[in-house]
Amino acid sequence: MSSQVLARKYRPRKFSEMVGQAHVVQALGNALSQGRLHHAYLFTGTRGIGKTTVSRILAKSLNCTGPDGTGGITADPCGVCTSCTEIDADRSLDYVELDAASNRGIDEVRDLIERATYKPATGRFKVFMIDEAHQLTKDAFNALLKTLEEPPEHLKFVLATTDPEKMLPTVLSRCLQFNLRPMAPDTVREHLRAVLVAEHVAFDEGALRLLGRAARGSMRDALSLADQAIAYGAGTLRDEAVRQMLGAVDRARAASLVQALAARDAKAMLAEVDALREHGASASGVLEELALLLQRMAVAQTVPEALDASDADDADAASLATALAADEVQLLYSMALHGRAELSLMSDEYAALSMVLLRFLAFPSEAAVPVRPELKPRDNRPPAAQALRAPAPPALAVPAPPVLAVPAPTPAVSRVPAAPLANVPAAAVAPDSADPALGERWFEIVKALDQRGAIAAMARELACSAGLVGVDDSRTPPVWRLRVASDTLRADAHRDRLQAALVQHLGLPLRLELEPGEPGDTVARRDAAEKARRQAAAEALIQADPVVQALVGEFKTARLVPGSIRPA
Ligand SMILES: [Zn+2]
After folding, report:
1. So what's the pLDDT on residue 550?
2. Can you give the residue ranges of every domain in the chain?
3. CA triple 15-19-25, angle to 5 deg
4. Treating both helix axes as pointing N-terminal to C-terminal, what angle do 219-232 and 239-246 enclose, rounded to 10 degrees?
5. What is the topology classification, in CATH, of domain 185-246?
6. How far is the CA of 69 from the centre of ligand 1 (A)?
């Protein structure tokens, strides 16, 4: 049996067959049945979660003509018309998938855009799907942008990405976005059960549970693993065989490890590690099983009623829950998770595994952990969690790079630029600022210094955080008074660097005086206000989008995710 048989056979061909993505299915289904179409869709989510599948169903929905050839756009594609069968069989001329992971350049995108000018071959729409869209080069994105902005009537775009953070905001703002969620292990398990029953494959509950977890939220992975496990187990799915195939660790062995650690018995713990090595378990599998057990132990300690009484694993967790204190469970969990990253750094992963576990024993048991008095007023975490920070190396004080006083060919400016200036953004001017024009003057100067790279590190920080509260021209040299809240920033060294940069930039002698206090109007605040203003404008634009309005109006739970809108 090929390892792709089940994954392909049970790939959803209709929205109603998609498992665990009800929120996306409902929103798309309603939009389709009401004919509310967007010209670009973005599906986000981890790999193997259904982004391509939902894209194909969408393409069929848009192009389906029904069994009798008279159907229109539908949320329930028939699966038998020419469009549906061609898309299902991967031979539709109207549905094109481009994998940006391997075709990321401008040439591929130009080719795609050229194809966009032709009318659909059989369907109503051409649907271009760009998978892993965040991998397109910047040039490719820019080439795509114009078509994305004003696509021909017959063209729909579907972008899919595992990493929306890397997409250009200008692209994001043109797409209707749907987030596909990783499936819970229970959801995966139930779906697997239905598939195995339909396939007449005998299985153990334990095997299902292992596969449900190993799939990490991806139904595609769950079905591929099930295929492999069936081949491995000669037609059946048995707990022991699946465990061996996955390199997974028996829960009882993880429980023995926890017992040894709780008893602070290093010898027993090392013996258990040796036994696991003998057994052929992967070190990473050991830490994973340990973390899973600890998670159930934490649940048993805090919400015991949430455990499944019929589940043997949960019963183990409940009986172990008294062996360690709650904060020790947290500490060990954290070490098990982070320890996995260390395993590959050592040639012998089992040596690395024993170090991770010995580290837990290096911490005194809960009762003996001294609470460092200076942490007490601010640190309410349990003692073991505080102990976590004890072995961390001290934060290094990175010295600010010195600003070199290289004379730049700056034209001598005899006068500070007059305020207000046309392009100065609106900003809240604090009432304690004696002269609002000073704030604008300071903003202009600092921005000019910054653009020229004339200030860096702490001097720049000082310039941005300070408010100019007075200029006394009657003194020689003139004195500029800056108000700064931070003691650190008022250090002479930072002041001298900023002063030197100002003298050079303005071509005027001046002396900076720093005074403590709340500065009111600062460059940093003006920048923040400008950012907020642009954000609000972008959000207003999205709120006004008719498609968004329809979605929000229709679904009680639909809302714009704060922070997901970014100004272009
Ligand atoms: Zn159809």
Report:
1. 73
2. 21-179, 185-246, 251-362, 436-526
3. 35
4. 110
5. Helicase, Ruva Protein; domain 3 (1.10.8)
6. 8
Question: Residue 528 corresponds to which tokens in the numbers above?
Answer: 């923040």
**CATH tag for 436-526 (out of 3.30.300.230, 3.40.50.1450, 3.30.300.150, 3.40.50.800):** 3.30.300.150
Please give the Cα distance from 463 to 461 (Å, whole number).
5
Class of domain 21-179: alpha beta
Contact 3, 231 (CB under 8 A): yes
CA of 194 to the centre of ligand 1 (A): 26
Distance between Cα 128 and ligand 1 center (Å): 18
d(CA 5, CA 253): 34
Contact 508, 475 (CB under 8 A): no
Round to whole Å and give the CA distance between 397 and 349: 34
Q: What is the distance in A from the centroid of ligand 1 to the CA of 29?
A: 15
Angle between helix axes 457-465 and 523-543 (nearest 10 degrees) is 70
Calculate mean pLDDT across residues 491-509.
Answer: 88
- For 173, the token pair is 């703002």
Q: Which residue has the higher pLDDT, 170 or 411?
A: 170
Cα of 154 vs centre of ligand 1, distance in Å, is 18
Residue 277 — φ and ψ, nearest 5°?
Answer: -65, -45
Distance CA 179, CA 322 (A): 40
From ligand 1's centre to the CA of 546, what distance in Å? 28
Contacts of 12 (CB under 8 A, 6+ apart): 18, 19, 50, 53, 57
Give the Cα separation of 289 and 241 in Å (integer). 17
HSE-up (13 A, CA, CB side) for residue 309:
2
Instruction: Please tell me the total number of residues recorded for the chain in this structure.
Output: 568
Distance CA 408, CA 423 (A): 26
The model scores a pTM over 0.85: no
How many Å lie between the centroid of ligand 1 and the Cα of residue 83? 6
pLDDT at position 185 is 87
pLDDT of residue 133: 92
What is the architecture of the domain spanning 251-362? Up-down Bundle (1.20)
Distance, CA 28 to ligand 1 centroid (Å)?
Answer: 17
Q: Which residue has the tokens 């601010």?
A: 378
